[in-house]
Design goal:
mainly beta
């Protein structure tokens, strides 16, 4: 760890709850700006990419709608691509994501970990996970890869490899 600050979070101090307004990557100068409506619900995201000499060179916008529970219901890009989201009623976990050309359905275990993702084509990717020596190993049936998540001090390390965890680590129950 370098101890360097990577992101700057800017909040609206004129709001009772101090709503997040901007996240800036201090290395690149790029940022995401969150616009809110009169109810303080996020309704627009603008990504601003800093170019040479940190002048703002590119900007992309998308409009957001939220449902009655404050969850993201849809996201629409300037090119009118609309993505709709639905959630598992009792957990708030994402159950599906849909555009005009794509559809993804998510299933979860009792612990809230994703078990599978089903695509519009009917193809299903299965995920299994195990915890071993403080590291979480997530195996995907899509490409047989394993993602290792481990926490050291206050940082999260993420490593990817092609070998499934069950072939080189014992499975704890």
């Amino acid at each position: 760890m370098t101890g360097a600050i990577k992101y700057k979070f800017t909040y609206n101090v004129n709001s009772y709850y101090g709503r997040l307004m901007r996240v800036t990557d201090l290395l690149s100068g790029s940022s995401v700006v969150i616009r809110r409506d009169y109810r303080l619900q996020a309704n627009q995201l603008t990504t601003v990419t800093a170019g040479a000499r940190r002048r703002l060179s590119q900007s992309q916008r998308c409009h957001l709608t939220t449902d009655s529970n404050g969850l993201l219901a849809s996201l629409t890009t300037l090119s009118s691509v609309k993505t709709r989201f639905s959630y598992v009623r009792n957990t708030g976990l994402l159950s599906s994501r849909q555009t005009d050309s794509d559809y993804y359905m998510y299933k979860y275990g009792q612990d809230g970990r994703v078990l599978s993702v089903t695509y519009l084509t009917g193809h299903e990717c299965l995920f299994t996970s195990r915890v071993y020596d403080g590291t979480v190993y997530v195996n995907s049936s899509c490409d047989g890869s394993t993602v290792e998540l481990s926490q050291h001090n206050q940082s999260l390390d993420i490593h990817c490899c092609k070998t499934p965890f069950h072939s080189h680590h014992r499975q704890d129950k």
